[in-house]
Amino acid sequence: MGSQALRNAVSAVRAGRKVDSKSVKEGFDALQKYAVDLTEKARQNQLDPVIGRDNEVRRCIRILCRRTKNNPVLIGEPGVGKTAIAEGLAQRMVNQDVPASLIGRLFSLDMGAI
């Protein structure tokens, strides 16, 4: 990627806005643009029930609760259940069936759209 192409891509993402803050949270709305709040969907009962992924969801919870090396990555072919595991985790978060450190929000980020 050339430098001009990179500048054009950054300009498109910024949409004419300037960076005037050191905090990323005050910056651009990448989560609203490219992510889906799975916990909000679970609260509104918009997610299908997760069947047969209990062991995988528990394993993700165990990994996320570690103090170190707590970054699970779900990799696999299309249709093997990666999204189902994330949705199952979101449903458990809404039902408060997770440790206190995991109660919060879970986003599904569309890397292809970024």
From TrEMBL:
SUPFAM superfamilies: P-loop containing nucleoside triphosphate hydrolases (SSF52540)
Species name: Phakopsora pachyrhizi (Asian soybean rust disease fungus)
Keyword Nucleotide-binding: yes
Name of the molecule in the record: P-loop containing nucleoside triphosphate hydrolase protein
Chloroplast listed as a keyword: no
Annotated PANTHER family: ATP-DEPENDENT CLP PROTEASE (PTHR11638), HEAT SHOCK PROTEIN 104 (PTHR11638:SF18)
UniProt-listed GO biological process terms: cellular heat acclimation; protein refolding; protein unfolding
Swiss-Prot/TrEMBL keywords: ATP-binding, Hydrolase, Nucleotide-binding
Gene3D superfamilies assigned: P-loop containing nucleotide triphosphate hydrolases (3.40.50.300)
InterPro entries registered for this protein in UniProt: ClpA_ClpB, P-loop_NTPase
Single GO MF descriptor: protein-folding chaperone binding
GO CC annotations on file: cytosol
